[in-house]
Amino acid sequence: MLYHWARLIELLYAAENTIELLNDKDITSKDVRVPVKPRAARGIGYVEAPRGTVIHDYTTDDNGLITNVNIIVGTTHNNAAINMSVKQAAKMLIKNGKYDQGMMNRLEMAIRAYDPCLSCATHNLDGTLPVKITIMDSKGKVVDTLVN
Question: What pTM value is reported for the model?
Answer without folding.
Answer: 0.54
